[in-house]
Amino acid sequence: MSNFTVKRNEALMRNKLQQAKRIVIKVGTSSLLS
Predict the structure, then answer these.
(1) Residue 22 CA to chain centroid, in angstroms?
(2) pLDDT score for 2
(3) What Rg value do the Cα atoms of the chain yield, rounded?
(4) What Å distances lie between residue 3 and 7, 12, 17, CA to CA?
(5) Which single residue of 1, 7, 13, 17 has CA 20 to 30 Å from 24?
(6) Residue 11 CA: distances (Å) to CA of 6, 7, 14, 19, 29
(7) Looking at residue 34, what DSSP letter applies?
(8) Ramachandran bin of 29, using left for φ above 0, alpha for ψ from -120 to 50, beta for the remaining angles
(9) pLDDT score at 1
(10) How many domains does the chain have?
(11) What is the full per-residue pLDDT of the chain (34 aa) written as tens digits?
(12) What domain range is 9 assigned to?
């Protein structure tokens, strides 16, 4: 059970990191274009 929870938390953290990167890239490109 605990192992499953750890794996799930890692997956959630990875998703959050990817979303944050996407937002940063979006903001960066929009600021460069403007």
Answers:
(1) 7
(2) 84
(3) 15
(4) 6, 14, 21
(5) 7
(6) 9, 6, 5, 12, 27
(7) -
(8) alpha
(9) 60
(10) 1
(11) 689 999 999 999 999 999 999 999 999 999 888 7
(12) 1-34
Can you tell me the distance from the alpha carbon of 29 to that of 21, in angstroms, rounded to the nearest whole number? 12
- For residue 21, give both structure tokens: 């990167």
Residue with tokens 């940063």: 24
Q: What pTM was estimated for this model as a whole?
A: 0.65
**Structure tokens belonging to residue 26:** 């979006």
Q: What's the rounded Cα separation, in Å, for the pair 31 and 13?
A: 27
Measured CA to CA in angstroms, residue 26 lies from 11, 12, 21, 34 at distances of 23, 21, 9, 12
Residue with tokens 């929009």: 30
Structure token pair of residue 28: 């960066």
